[in-house]
Design a protein that fits this description.
- This protein has seven helices and ten strands.
- A four-stranded mixed sheet has the order 1-5-8-10, with helices on one face. A four-stranded mixed sheet has the order 2-3-6-9, with no helix packed on it. Strands 4-7 form a two-stranded parallel ribbon.
- Helix 1 crosses helix 2, helix 1 runs parallel beside helix 3 and helix 2 crosses helix 3.
- It is an alpha/beta fold and 200 residues long.
- It has three domains: 50 residues, no CATH class; 43 residues; 86 residues, no CATH class.
- It comes from Aeribacillus composti.
């Protein structure tokens, strides 16, 4: 079809019902003289008639469900990735919790001996001794070891992963806590961290 572009536009306007009366006369005159445009117009007219004839056809009520059932199943990794991409805050929080939990468990499993430093404490292998006649003013924390109190402690005593706590009544003015289970240790770490934060 080598006719001017405005002729094709007039054909589309006519089929849409938007053509003005004077444009309609011009189009009718052109179609009588141009076989290409006439054939193009007739093809478009048939297509419009066909679409109008099937517009009342409705898909069955379960059509969508049947199509979805026949689609290949999505891999679980794809749906997981999509969820993480759509929920970045939860993804970051989950990653933070995983990393923190891993570092906490790693430090719980660590078997390195440690003790709060005081000048008047005696360390014999993995046993911390408060000698008779000595007074420790402050809290003592022993990790992966034992404590034997012969003197006095003016504060709290915490033994983490220790086998023995030896002291007679009245020698510790604060609380005595033995932590040998993971959840007790985790709770102790949370309390310690919070107390450090609120001290500042």
């Amino acid at each position: 079809m080598k006719c001017p572009k405005h002729v094709e536009e007039m054909i589309h306007k006519y089929l849409d019902g938007d053509l003005h009366e004077d444009e309609g006369r011009e189009l009718k005159k052109h179609l009588q003289s141009c076989e290409d445009c006439k054939a193009h117009y007739q093809e478009l007219e048939k297509a419009v008639a066909f679409v109008k004839s099937i517009s009342h056809v409705e898909a069955p009520t379960d059509f969508t469900q049947k199509v979805l059932e026949k689609l290949p199943k999505e891999k679980r990794t794809v749906s997981t990735r999509r969820w993480f991409r759509n929920h970045p805050f939860f993804s970051a929080a989950a990653l933070f919790v995983i990393l923190m939990t891993g570092s906490l468990f790693a430090s719980y499993e660590e078997s390195q001996f440690s003790v709060t430093k005081y000048d008047n404490l005696v360390v014999d292998n993995r046993t911390v001794i408060v000698p008779e006649g000595e007074t420790v003013k402050g809290d003592i924390t022993v990790k992966n070891g034992d404590i034997k109190i012969e003197g006095k402690v003016e504060g709290n005593v915490t033994v983490i992963n220790g086998d023995q706590y030896l002291a007679s009544a009245g020698q510790v003015t604060g609380e005595v806590e033995e932590i040998n289970e993971l959840f007790e240790w985790l709770w102790y770490e949370v309390k310690s961290t919070l107390s450090e934060v609120f001290k500042q």
